[in-house]
Amino acid sequence: MNFSGKYQVQTQENYEAFMKAVGMPDDVIQKGKDIKGVSEIVQNGKHFKFIITAGSKVIQNEFTLGEECEMEFMTGEKIKAVVQQEGDNKLVTTFKGIKSVTEFNGDTVTSVSLHSQLGGPSTWGWVGRWVVGGQGRHEEQ
C-alpha cells in the first residue's frame, strides 16, 4: 500500500488534555483545538515525508522506515525516533514515552497517540479523510 496523499482531520478526542500534558502552552492549545489540520504524506519506497499544517503552523518531518531519524515534535522540540510499518497499513513509532499508531483504511486515516506516563486522559486520537481531488485513495496494485 502506498500511503501518499493529503488527509484532513475530521474529528479528534482528548486534544486539550493531551497537549497540555506534553507541554504545549495553553494559548497554543486554545488556538489549535478547533483547527482541522491537514497532513500530507509523500512516500517513495521506504522513505516518507510528512508535512503537517495546522493553521499557520507547518511541521515537516522525513524518515526512512526502520532507521533512526530526527523529527520535530508538536512543541517544536527535536526528538529522535524510529518509525516502523506493521502489516500493510500501519505506521508505528515511540518517542518521549508516547506510542503513536497511524492506520490507513481506504480514504480514512486514524491516528492514536498513547502516553504511558500521563495521568488523566493519556490518549489523543484523530480521524482524517483523504482530501486531494475528493476521489478517495487507491491502493497500489
Automatic annotation (TrEMBL):
Check the record and name the Pfam families matching this protein: Lipocalin_7
Note the CDD domains from the entry.
FABP1
The task this protein performs is described as: Binds free fatty acids and their coenzyme A derivatives, bilirubin, and some other small molecules in the cytoplasm. Involved in intracellular lipid transport.
Gene Ontology cellular-component terms for this entry are: cytoplasm
Q: Main localization of the protein?
A: cytoplasm
The terms under GO molecular function for this entry are:
fatty acid binding
Name this polypeptide is given: Fatty acid-binding protein, liver
Tell me its family: Belongs to the calycin superfamily. Fatty-acid binding protein (FABP) family.
Superkingdom of origin organism: Eukaryota
Cellular localization per UniProt: Cytoplasm
Decide whether keyword Transport is in the record. Answer: yes
